């Protein structure tokens, strides 16, 4: 019996691991940028918006501000990016900004994601263990046909990965000890923190999450319990 | 356009509305009762155990005790019922009591539930808005093949229905105003409270939840937005 046989729940990083946020955000931003004559490549705009993601969560992680859900941070970060491009976002209709912020809930899955998740779901309970908020993960699942059983992660724990509380509270919420939870992610730092909290670790390589010149997370940096090139390969490795 | 067209999420009462708790708990209890020579009909045992459900939640609702999840209350209530039958539960193996308490996570759906939910899921996001805890709802969904998108309800809100907070926090968690959430339940009191918080109301009649002599909830006691004889009839009424 493998040490993986006792897993009851697989928790998934979503942005980058299950869905391709970069192309999806760029697609949603393109008409907005054109309408407001903001002269930037939509993919570059997506990268700039995303670059504020970790710093904005850091303020919550450090205790500098109380927990707020990711849609709130994404919206603040959108305003920051627009300001950097000298856009007076206060003059843009609220509904238009809110709509653009919903880009994070309308992202395409990687080509192997739905097939892999559907196979994994037959053997395990599955759900996001993401920094996304519950409503966003729910809306994204309907858009991308992600067959989650439950949604845990940052909002359930009121803390952002890689803080231990996010993993531990998520495991507790699905009724399992950390050792019976597998973390599935394309990011070595996420898996390192998950392992630090006792979870099993499944690395799915996503070498173009950040575009063709990606420099990070190109390889497994530790001996993760599973290392796979796709979600379907992860399903193979887990006997699904 | 009907006032129901704007619904985005359907929240379900589960025990009694989606699954048949009475026969399932009796089935799980039967070998336990036989093994410990407890002379009671298993269905009657299920009724007695269930009869402590509302009083135990009342202590949380009133503020007499802090919120604890339903598995904790069910376990305490099990010990109470055993004591009433002069069983010294302290002499029964912990694992055996824990296993019996899991009866609430291994209940059969009513014959129309899975077909109805599967149809409703194509048009709406769906999930338990139950007094059950998240892990229990998750395990039950795997046992009974309930195709939830998300799990909200008592544990998310740290309050038990029919307190308004349970409905309001569940709506907030799925990112919708109460008016855009439909409560699906076999219990008039649940729907009355949901309506009081602004939710839409879908009554699914379950006239044998409490057995052949059921006296409560045999009819719709208010003009609920939908009144149906089954989950598939509810799907018909909602155009799914």
Describe this structure in words.
Two copies of one chain form a homodimer. With 240 residues, chain A is of the alpha/beta class. Chain A folds into two domains: 9-20 and 107-237, Rossmann fold (3-Layer(aba) Sandwich); 21-105, Orthogonal Bundle (DNA polymerase, domain 1), CATH 1.10.150.240. Helices cover 45% and strands 10% of the residues of chain A. Chain A is built from eleven helices and six strands. Chain A has helices at 21-35, 42-51, 53-61, 70-84, 94-101, 113-123, 134-144, 154-157, 164-173, 188-196, 231-237; strands at 9-12, 125-130, 152-153, 181-185, 200-204, 226-228. Chain A has a six-stranded parallel β-sheet with strand order 3-2-1-4-5-6, with helices on both faces. In chain A, strand 4 (181-185), helix 10 and strand 5 (200-204) form a beta-alpha-beta unit. In chain A, helix 2 crosses helix 4 (70-84). The longest helix of chain A is centred in the N-terminal third of the chain and has 15 residues, at 21-35. The model of chain A has no long low-confidence stretch (mean pLDDT 97). At the A-B interface, helix 7 of A face helix 7 of B.
Instruction: Tell me how many strands of chain A there are.
Output: 6
Category from helices, strands and their pairing of chain A? alpha/beta
In helices, the fraction of residues of chain A equals: 40-55%
**What's the domain count of chain A?**
2
Catalogue the unreliable spans of chain A: none
Q: Biggest interface, and residues per chain?
A: A-B, 20 and 20 residues
Name of the level-1 CATH class of the largest domain in chain A: Alpha Beta
Q: Report, as a whole number of angstroms, the end-to-end distance of chain A.
A: 15 Å
Percent strand of chain A: 5-15%
Overall pLDDT level of chain A: 97
Q: Helix segment count of chain A? A: 11
Give the overall shape of chain A.
globular
């Amino acid at each position: 019996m493998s040490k993986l046989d006792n897993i009851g729940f697989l928790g998934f990083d979503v942005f980058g691991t299950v869905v391709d946020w970069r192309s999806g955000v760029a697609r949603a931003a393109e008409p907005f940028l054109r309408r407001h004559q903001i002269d930037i490549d939509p993919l570059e705009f997506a990268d700039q918006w995303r670059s504020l993601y970790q710093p904005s969560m850091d303020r919550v992680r450090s205790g500098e501000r109380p927990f707020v859900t990711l849609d709130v941070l994404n919206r603040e970060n959108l305003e920051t990016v627009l300001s950097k491009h000298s856009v007076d976002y206060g003059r843009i209709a609220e509904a238009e900004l809110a709509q653009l912020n919903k880009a994070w809930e309308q992202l395409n899955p990687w080509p192997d994601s739905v097939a892999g998740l559907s196979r994994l779901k037959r053997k395990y309970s599955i759900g996001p263990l993401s920094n996304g908020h519950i409503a966003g993960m729910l809306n994204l699942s309907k858009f991308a046909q992600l067959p989650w059983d439950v949604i845990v992660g940052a909002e359930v724990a009121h803390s952002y990965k890689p803080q231990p509380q996010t993993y531990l509270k998520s495991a507790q919420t699905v009724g399992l000890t950390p050792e019976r939870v597998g973390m599935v992610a394309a990011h070595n730092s996420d898996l390192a923190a998950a392992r630090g909290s006792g979870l099993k670790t499944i690395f799915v390589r996503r070498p173009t999450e950040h575009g063709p010149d990606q420099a990070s997370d190109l390889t497994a940096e530790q001996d993760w319990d599973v290392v796979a090139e796709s979600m379907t390969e992860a399903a193979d490795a887990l006997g699904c």
